[in-house]
Batch of 3 targets.
Target 1
Amino acid sequence: MGKAGVEPVTKDCFCYHHLQNAAHGKVQIIRVNSIPCEVDVSLPLDEVKSYTLYIDIRDPRVLVCFDGDIPSGGLPKGSSVLMTLPVVSGMATSPLTCHIAKAYKRRGENEDPLRYIVTGDTARQLIKRHFILLKSGRAVFRKYRETLQPVYLIVDVHNGVAEFSTSSY
């Protein structure tokens, strides 16, 4: 028995991921110690062996990792961004680049401004990796295609499971 009659949690905990240039899925979280609750997350196809996060595994929210941006109003109330890292060369993915002729162009003035940087004849989109605890409900994130076109990722969280769908469905 732990503090105040709470028993240690022995259930499996997962990190649901949707990474750039990789299939979405889930990985099991490995508990390092209980005070503070330190866990390690190892993602597929990632040269970084593991990410150390400090979370209480009794927290009912779901851990989600993705590469991209969080648009304004994209997170439901009660969600927490645990860590944001730039995705740089040497990790599973690097910043997206393409020739400026193939880069996505705005279709109208009502679209959000483009986020890529043009250097010479190359367009480059910086990518960030986010680790977020999400409450039940729906979150919206922004990912990018090879042409740097934004694609919105919808994450539905219910009963401790995260399901991904994109705006292209």
Target 2
Amino acid sequence: MANQPEQAPESQKAAPNFWKSTRKTLHNASFEAQKYKRLVQKKLDLATNNRKFSGFYSELGKLVDDAFTAGEKDFLANSEVNDLLTKLQFLKGNAAALEMEIETIKHANPEELEGDVEVVSEEKDETR
């Protein structure tokens, strides 16, 4: 019978550790799910951005061909050509930014946010 009172404090110590571990596991799982969701969305945005390149390049080629056929020597003087080149430069910048965001998301870890989660969890435990 002397063993029963000793077991009670051990089980009381194990319960908070179990819930803390469960909370951490759920946090890590939800973080990974959100990370995957953001990663897929950024990759879709990048694919959409990259699809626009072929359309702009074909339009640029058509404008240059039309200008060459018309006898123009300075293609860059044409405002439509300059507009398309500006749009292409903008798309390249977007693609580079999206690729950097994808790399940032890939290397993110849940420990960066863990401190915030623990503080909130402890406050909830104290109020019970």
Target 3
Amino acid sequence: MGQKSWMKGKLLFVLFAVFLSLLLGCRTGFVERNRPEKILQEGDWLSYHTKHFDFYYRPGSKSEGRIKLIANRQENNYLDILNQMHLHDHNFRAIYFIFSSFDEYDDITDAGQFGNGHEIGNYDAIYGVDGYSLSNIMGKHELTHFIVDKFFGAGARGPYKWIISEGLAVWTEDSWDGMDLYEFARLRIAEGDISTPFEIIRNDETGNILRNSYAMAGAFTKYMISTYGIAKLIRLYQQGKGLEVFDQIYGMSLSDMNNQFLTFLTSENPELKVGGVRQTGP
């Protein structure tokens, strides 16, 4: 009996090790595929250099005719984000690849499954698509990820890692689909098609993140920063290893913060009922 239990335990360990190695291999393969040196070997590129960016874009693309506009916008965005987060300029530089189409972006980076832009802190690189939407290559989202990575490390490793990381990136733009973040969250709550912050955190464990969750993450982050300051959120981003860290930093549980935020949203709009937005806790 003891021998069988030992063999079963050994088999489970081996299966887990194989699964982990496959998972790490997939991630490693993705990161390696996005290495700037490899990307630059994929056809012809033109370049344009500014104080904080090395832009690379295709000859004959839309970007070629408006690269100065893109560069100026991103330089302004860089300074705006520093001001929003109360940071001083350390002259960090980012490599910024602008692909001509979504298909090209996906074929070369294998990142189409994640959206139309991404950032890899290991390479100080941002990847976007021209022709998909100007907000993609002239917005703050991926640039915020880059700045946060440079100043604070890859952080956000707690059970709320996704909502903080993406929440900050959405918060810096302060809108979603052209709407104020709070107003967007209230509208989606009224329509019953958005997750609460606590549900987003729970869904992050299963990978079941919906597009509207980005907006709710941004609204939740905006509320925490407006109410308790950005310094506490940055501490959480850097130190967050478990739910107890949230309690230590904010003096309340994550579920209490979740319900406080939902009460704020509904109190600003009497037509919405708090009970209708599924207050949740552990």
